Every structure is written in structure tokens, then in C-alpha cells.
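Exercise 7.
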Amino acid sequence: MSNISIKINLRQLKSAVRPMKGKSGEVMCLIIPIDQNHLVKGEKGIYLDMQAYELKEKKGDRKDTHLIKQSFPKEVFDKMTDDEKMALPIFGNLVVWGYSEPSPNNVEITDSTEGTDGDLPF
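Solution. The predicted structure, written as C-alpha cells, is:
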């Protein structure tokens, strides 16, 4: 299995950056609307579907091997004009490195309603 470095610019999504009140004071937050960004609400999380496109040519000394763009539901993608499809932003890049053995990743995802009164739980 290869190691892959990924860089994603979350500001390519419809979003806002603003300070919010946290337990220890002001916290800068990136607010990302779910429906406006076509995020998928699943049983265990909220997902941003993306696709990586392999670069045919490398530019300069960059090590990027792929570009990342958002993947849309078929009904949304089919309604886009050719110009809208061409204007879809590039979210980031991938660099595929050498081979390594995969390690298990056991992460528990919880859906917390803590802090829904406007204050953040952190």
C-alpha cells in the first residue's frame, strides 16, 4: 500500500470564517453549510464526496500526482452546464509516496448536541 499526502482547501466550499464563543474564550471557526455544499448525511457522519484525477503531466518540481475535485450526486451534476462543470474548483492535491503496510484506524464518531445554544463545547 502506498502512503498518500493530501492537502485540501476547505474554503473552496461555500463557507464562512468567524469567531464564536468557546469555553476558554473566542474560537475562530470555519462554518460549512451541509445542504448548500451537497454534503452527504450518513449514519455515522457527514461526508464530502470527492474524486482524485491523475495528472498526466507534472509541472516543474512539484510532486503532485493527482488533483482533487468534488463529486456530486448524478441529478446535481446533470443539471450543470458545461461551463459550470469546467469552473468547478480544485480542492487540493495528492502525492502518492512509497509502499507501506496499512495500520488499523479505530475512530468512534458521535453525534453531540452539546453546545447547540450558540456556545461551542471546546
